[in-house]
Amino acid sequence: MDKFQEMRAFVAVVDAGSFVRAADALNLSKTAVSRLVGDLEERLGARLLQRTTRKLSLTAEGAVFHERCRQLLDGVAEAEAELSSQAGEAIGQLRLNVPVTFGLLHLAPLWPGFMALHPKVELDVTLSDRLVDLVDEGYDLAVRIARLQTSSLVSRQLTSTRLILCASPAYLQRHGTPAHPSELARHVVFAYSLLASGDQWTFEGPDGPVSVKVAPRMRTNSGDTCCTAALQHQGIVLQPSFLVGAHLASGALVEILPQFRSHELGVYAVYPSRKHLTPKVRALIDFLVDAFRMRAWPA
Which segments of 139-286 are extended strands (E)? Predict the structure, then answer.
C-alpha cells in the first residue's frame, strides 16, 4: 500500500478525531481508512493510536510521527501549489483568520461566490478578534480592521470604516442628546474593550481634536454586545459603521455629534511577506478588493 496514502489517512484520523469523519473527508470507506492506518502501524512496528469506544488518542510515538507526517504532507501540498502557480491556477487549502463580527456580516456571504469561482480551493476560515501570528500559526491571510502600523506583513486595503457615536432615539429622548463630546462623561456608555485608545475617546471637531475619558457601564470584547445594548435603549456606543450602518439606515440608532468625527479604520488583507504569494492567495485578495468596491455602510 502507498506510504503516502497511509500517512494521509493517519493524519486525517487524528485531525478529524474519528475514523468515520476521516473517511468522509478522504472520500473513502471507514474500512479502507482503518486498513491504511493498521497497515501503517504494522509496517512501523508501533502503535500510533489508542482506540476506545469513546475516543481516539495519540500514543507518544504517534504524536511524534503525526508531527513529521504533517510536515511532509504540508511540504507536498506546498510543492503542488508552487507547480500549479506556474499555470496561475488557484488550488489547495487556504487558511484565513477574520474578525468575528465583520466575518459574519460581510465576509460569510462572499465565501460561496469565491468557492464557485475557484472550485479547487478549500477554505479554512477561523473567526477571531485575537491578533494572531500568521507565520507561527500557519495562516495564509488575515483580514484586519485597524490603523495599520508598520510590520513584517504585507497588506492591501480592501475598504474602510469609521467609528460612529450613536444611540437609540428612545435613550436620547430620556437622557438628552450630548451637545459636545465632553458631555459623554455623564452618559451611560458601552465600550469595546479592544479599542486601542481604551476609555479615552477622541474626535476631530470643527476646532480641532477633542478627547474625553468615558466611564463605561460595561466593557466587552464584542461589538455586537455593545450594539445590542444600544438597540435596547440602554446607552451610547462608539462602533464601526460596518456594524451600525444598517441600524442607522433603519432609524433604530441615530448618529450623535456628526460634526465630531472619530477614527477612520482601514480594512486590510494581510499576509506574510516572507511567503511566496500563491495563486490561491492572490485570487482571494483580488476577489475581496472587487467585492468591497461598493461599500454597504456609511462613509
Answer: 141-146, 153-167, 189-192, 200-205, 208-213, 218-220, 236-240, 254-255, 264-272
